[in-house]
Amino acid sequence: MHSPACDSWVITFESVHQVMKAEKVLRPAGFDVVLVPTPREISSECGVAVELKDALPDRARRLLRENGLRPLLFCKRKQSR
Amino acid sequence: MFETREALARTFGIRDTARLIFTGSATEALNLAILGLGLAEGDQVVTSGMEHNSVMRPLRHLEKEKGVKVSVVRGTEDGLLSPDELAAEITGQTRLLVVTHASNVVGTILPISAFGKVARRHNVTFLVDAAQTVGCVPFRVDEDGIDLLAFSGHKGLLGPQGIGCLYIREGIELAPLKFGGTGSRSEQELQPDFLPDRYESGTLNLPGIAGLKAGVEYLNQEGIENIRNRVRQLTATLVRRLSELRGTKVYGTRDESRRTGVVSFNVVGRQPSEIAEILDREHGISVRAGLHCSPQAHRTIGTFPSGTVRVGLGPFNTDEHVDALCTALRAIAG
Question: Residue A79's pLDDT band (boundaries 50, 70, 90)?
């Protein structure tokens, strides 16, 4: 369940392969993640992005980096899902 | 799809799973590798005398259309080939060494690890056709110096037909065979330069990929080494019993550590097609007769153009199956 105080982040990657890998890396580490269509205001990609519910995304950033994943964008989402 | 890629990568020692490309077949994977290297007039390719047409036809195409020199190193009648024999053909113009890991005609396993060292020493790209060995013989791309690895999903990996793969080592550049939608970089009309998207345009064979995952998971649960030992024992029995049958000639090496579960034979004085038909109609045993899409290999073992009768033993075969085949052949040949 989402805590209302939590921020939501949208993370985009170069390829769908990386999006799926990010999901596999983050979820078992306890992060609350879902795959979402990449919001139009962020990118014109037709692909998917990772939405992360977390107050402090630094640990997620580090974990992605440790697994060889390079997010293209890491943006705060205004509207909570 | 992601999980299938991960499972395959783990099985074959591939670190970066994005470098595993899904294709429609091993043939498509081999075409992508052979045609994608941009070989041109003056370049040379060295290959073995045991290759399938999925290697020979793209090579002959390059020879005819681009003036690429194709050198076939024949090896012995058993289908064996030494690294020194291969190395002797390599010149300053050699850009690609392509070999099958095991013959689809006689099952002879080639020493790819030693070939990989030859390729590395001469700075030649090393492509392995592993259609006959994935899931049957354990190996790892990182330990065997493989630059490009092509295989199909429906043989030893126990997946459905219509799915194949190409592994592309980091640093190897290939031109794509296909261009189109990838679900990424949609605002751009140029093909993406990152993998796997660069080589995976169009809708992939998802039912095939899902089936392949089930196959690979089964193999890893059973252990490829265990399956290999079981099939090896069964094959040794079949080869021994066929050799003892009067009027039957078995092809390939007698060294069981260097064979897969593929066994080719002939009944002296009879056409392979005739034997296959009797086995099928009267004994309910499926074999394949003829050239097995490998005229090159049949030239090497001396059975061109009539070919052989080929039996393929797998993880689900038993001693009873071997027994039934030998009993049937005794009735046919005797």
Answer: low
**B186 touching A (Cβ < 8 Å):** yes
Q: Which of B186, B209, B183 is closest to B23 using CA atoms?
A: B209
Q: pLDDT tier at B333 (50, 70, 90 boundaries)?
A: confident
Here the ipTM equals 0.71
Query: A74 pairs with which residues across the strands?
Result: A11
Query: ω into residue B83 within 30 of 0, thus cis?
Result: no
Report how far apart the first and last C-alpha atoms of chain A are (Å, whole number): 11
Task: Say whether residue B320 is in contact with chain A using an 8 A CB cutoff.
Answer: no
Any alpha helices (H) in B67-106, and if so which ranges?
83-89
Question: Could you say which residues from 12 to 71 on chain A have a Cβ atom under 8 Å away from some Cβ of chain B?
Answer: 14-18, 20-21, 24, 44-47, 68
Contact A45 B184 (CB under 8 A): yes
H or E element that contains B262: strand B262-267
Cβ atoms of B23 and B231 closer than 8 Å: no
Of the given ranges (B35-44, B101-110, B136-145), which has the lowest mean pLDDT? Answer: B136-145
Give tens-digit pLDDT for B94-120: 999 999 999 999 999 999 999 999 999
Q: Testing the interface with B: which of A17, A43, A50, A70 to mutate, by most B Cβ within 10 A?
A: A17
- Residues B136, B12, B59: CA angle, nearest 5 degrees: 80
Pair B264, B309: CB distance under 8 Å = yes
Helix (H, G, I), strand (E, B) or coil at B326: helix
Please check the confidence at residue B139 and state whether its pLDDT lies above 60: yes
Check B16 against A68: CB less than 8 A apart.
Answer: yes
Task: Name every residue whose Cβ is closer than 8 Å to that of residue B188 and which is 6 or more positions away in sequence.
Answer: none
Q: Which two tokens stand for residue B56?
A: 């020979």
Amino acid symbol at B285 = I
Are B186 and A18 within 8 A, CB to CB?
Answer: no
CA distance A68 to A47: 20
Q: Give tens-digit pLDDT for A4-43.
A: 557 899 999 988 899 999 999 999 999 999 999 888 788 7
